[in-house]
Design goal:
single chain; 103 residues; 4 strands; alpha+beta
Length: 103
């Protein structure tokens, strides 16, 4: 339950006024657009943020990869984006992460 509260805190803290951090910015990292972001917290408290990374356009059937960033300190610092899925010239669409609390 603690990890759920941490994930909700990280999500809602990004909506509050004050200091914010764009984890995925269009035009950076070799991608024109980032869409369909998601976030999950592991049992060990690592926050994983991921998104579709679209190379040339925002269309649903263009070359789309999935990228991931990690935070081990509750969202204060993040790793550089790393490629999680690459379908070549096809689209790796609609990523979703699930935290298995039983495994």
């Amino acid at each position: 339950m603690r990890n759920l509260y941490l994930a909700l805190f990280v999500l809602f803290a990004s909506l509050l006024p004050g200091e914010t951090l764009d984890l995925f910015e269009g035009g950076k990292g070799g991608y024109s657009t980032y869409r369909i972001p998601g976030m999950v917290v592991t049992k060990r408290g690592v926050v994983l943020a991921y998104a579709e990374a679209r190379t040339t356009a925002a269309g649903d059937w263009d070359n789309i990869d999935v990228v991931l960033r990690r935070s081990k300190d509750g969202g204060t610092t993040w790793t550089p984006p790393q490629l999680l899925a690459d379908a070549g010239d096809l689209a790796a669409n609609n990523p979703v992460a699930i935290a298995d609390r039983n495994g």
